Amino acid sequence: MKEKIKVLFICLGNICRSPAAEGAFLNLVKQKNLTHLFEIDSCGTSGYHDGDLADPRTRKIAEKRGIHLTHRSRKLNKKDLTYFDYLLVMDENNLDDVRSLTNDINIQGKIILFGKFRSDSGAPIVPDPYYKNEIAFEMVQNLVEDCSSGFLNFLGVDECLK
Ligand code: 4NP
C-alpha cells in the first residue's frame, strides 16, 4: 500500500483555526472517498490550551456545516516536523515560529501558509478570530473550507481513486 499523505494544520492555540482546518479538510476528503490516502492532524505553536476541545464558537460553526470536531489541543513538537509531509500554518507568526524550530531545508520546504490555497486574491492568511466575534469565526470556517479545496487540487489526488 502507498504511504499516506501526512498533513498537519498549525495555529497558535490549536482551538480555533487549525482544528477548523483539520475538520474541513477531513470532511472534504471523506466526501471524495479519499480518506484512506491521508493522515490528518492539527496542533498549536503554544501549549496554552493543551487537552482542550476546540473553542465552542469554532465547534458551533463547524457543526452547522455537518462537521463534528473532537480534536484535543496539543502543542507542536520536533517529531512533527519530520513526520508530517505538509506543515500548513495559518499566519505569519505561525510561519516564523515554526521556521525558527529548524535549519533543515527539507523541513523548511514543508512549511506553507494554508491561505496560499484560497481561490480568491485575498491575503494568504487565516486571521486569528479568538478575540473577535462570531462573524470572524464564520469567516475562518469559510476560508478553511475554500483553502481545503485548493490544497486538495494542488495535491492532484482527485483522480487517484480507490
Ligand atoms: P487559534 O486561536 O490560534 O486559532 O487556536 C487562538 C486561541 C487561543 C489564543 C490565541 C489564539 N490564546 O491566546 O489563548
UniProtKB/TrEMBL annotation:
Enzyme class: hydrolase
GO molecular function: acid phosphatase activity; non-membrane spanning protein tyrosine phosphatase activity
SUPFAM superfamilies (UniProt xref): Phosphotyrosine protein phosphatases I
Name of the featured protein: protein-tyrosine-phosphatase
EC number: 3.1.3.48
Alphabetically ordered keywords of this record: Cytoplasm, Hydrolase, Protein phosphatase
Domain Phosphotyrosine protein phosphatase I: residue ranges: 5-154
Family of the protein in this entry: Belongs to the low molecular weight phosphotyrosine protein phosphatase family.
PANTHER family named in the record: LOW MOLECULAR WEIGHT PHOSPHOTYROSINE PROTEIN PHOSPHATASE, LOW MOLECULAR WEIGHT PROTEIN TYROSINE PHOSPHATASE
Intracellular or extracellular location(s): Cytoplasm
Active site: 11 (nucleophile), 17, 128 (proton donor)
Cellular component GO terms, alphabetical: cytoplasm
Pfam families on file: LMWPc
Keyword Cytoplasm: yes
Domain of life: Bacteria
Organism: Leptospira perdikensis
